[in-house]
């Protein structure tokens, strides 16, 4: 994983589950053509640069995955059928077919476990120091999926248990109207791993923010969107309180 601004003073901890598109050398190219690694199936386009700009603007730490979600998806629970996809948006992933227990365990040890261990380490250190923390998981979504042009600029994903998510949705809708989606284009559900894993047991508030990929596909867009989002987060920071919500027992 890659950690930017690890000692940032912000109450926000930024995460990028799908920010990278590298493949460990031992896995070759997973049998994929080079152009597949440029697509949304391989990574969340623009999130690495967006997160770095937000980290700088907010003085926040940003922990991001460097490896592709096609190797193993860090926002899926281990054992989930979509954790190591054999097909993604019509693209067959030959290197994931017939993957045995040893191969799966190697990916967990190389990619999945270190990423989540670092998030846990940072959170535990912050909590031990009495620091307020709100987890913000950054993602991006493709503008067109299965022929449907998605009208949203941002999506706020939540489970109706996050005061901060509700406040962000309200702030975005006051500026953008329905271009801010409420659990659109995805809903936070049982497939999500990172927020439940790290926020629930610690009683932390959270936000899973989706940004449309065409808005952050280049440096100009990344800079503009980071400035806009940072402005919203800075405005809402005084109302965070201790950043806590009721603890959800681990499942």
Q: Can you walk me through this structure?
A:
By secondary structure, this protein is an alpha/beta fold. The protein has a single domain (2-239), classed as Zn-dependent exopeptidases (Aminopeptidase), CATH 3.40.630.40. The chain is 31% helix and 17% strand. It has helices at residues 47-58, 101-128, 163-176, 194-200, 219-236; strands at residues 2-4, 12-16, 61-64, 87-88, 91-92, 134-141, 144-145, 148-149, 154-157, 180-182, 205-212. A seven-stranded mixed beta sheet has the order 1-3-2-6-11-9-10, with helices on both faces. Strand 7 (144-145) and strand 8 form a beta hairpin. Helix 1 packs across helix 5 (219-236). It is globular and about 50 Å long. It starts with a strand and ends in a 15-residue tail after the last helix. The model has no long low-confidence stretch (mean pLDDT 93).
Task: Please describe the topology of this protein.
Blueprint: E1 2-4, E2 12-16, H1 47-58, E3 61-64, E4 87-88, E5 91-92, H2 101-128, E6 134-141, E7 144-145, E8 148-149, E9 154-157, H3 163-176, E10 180-182, H4 194-200, E11 205-212, H5 219-236
Parallel strand pairs: 2-3, 2-6, 6-11, 9-10
Antiparallel strand pairs: 1-3, 4-5, 7-8, 9-11
Short key terms for the protein model shown above:
single chain, about 250 residues, alpha/beta, Aminopeptidase, two-stranded antiparallel ribbon, 11 strands
């Amino acid at each position: 994983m890659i950690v930017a601004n690890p000692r940032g003073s912000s109450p926000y901890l930024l995460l990028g589950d799908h920010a990278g598109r590298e493949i460990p050398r031992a896995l070759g190219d997973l049998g994929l053509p080079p152009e597949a690694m440029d697509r949304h199936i391989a990574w969340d386009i623009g999130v690495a640069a967006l997160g770095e700009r937000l980290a700088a603007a907010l003085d926040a730490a940003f922990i991001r995955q460097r490896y592709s979600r096609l190797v193993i998806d860090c926002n899926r629970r281990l054992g989930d059928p979509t954790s190591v996809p054999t097909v993604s948006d019509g693209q067959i992933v030959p290197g994931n077919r017939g993957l045995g227990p040893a191969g799966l365990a190697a990916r967990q040890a190389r990619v999945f476990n270190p990423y989540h261990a670092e998030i846990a380490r940072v959170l535990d250190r912050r909590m031990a120091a009495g620091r307020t923390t709100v987890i913000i998981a950054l993602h991006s979504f493709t503008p067109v999926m299965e022929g449907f042009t998605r009208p949203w600029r941002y999506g706020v994903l939540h489970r109706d248990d996050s005061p901060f998510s509700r406040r962000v949705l309200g702030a975005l809708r006051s500026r953008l109207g329905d271009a801010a989606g409420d659990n659109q284009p995805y809903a936070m559900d049982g497939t999500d791993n990172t927020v439940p894993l790290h926020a629930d047991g610690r009683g932390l508030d959270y936000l899973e923010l989706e940004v449309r990929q065409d808005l952050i596909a280049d440096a100009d867009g990344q800079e503009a969107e980071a400035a806009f989002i940072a402005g919203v987060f800075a405005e809402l920071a005084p109302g965070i309180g201790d950043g806590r919500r009721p603890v959800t027992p681990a499942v």
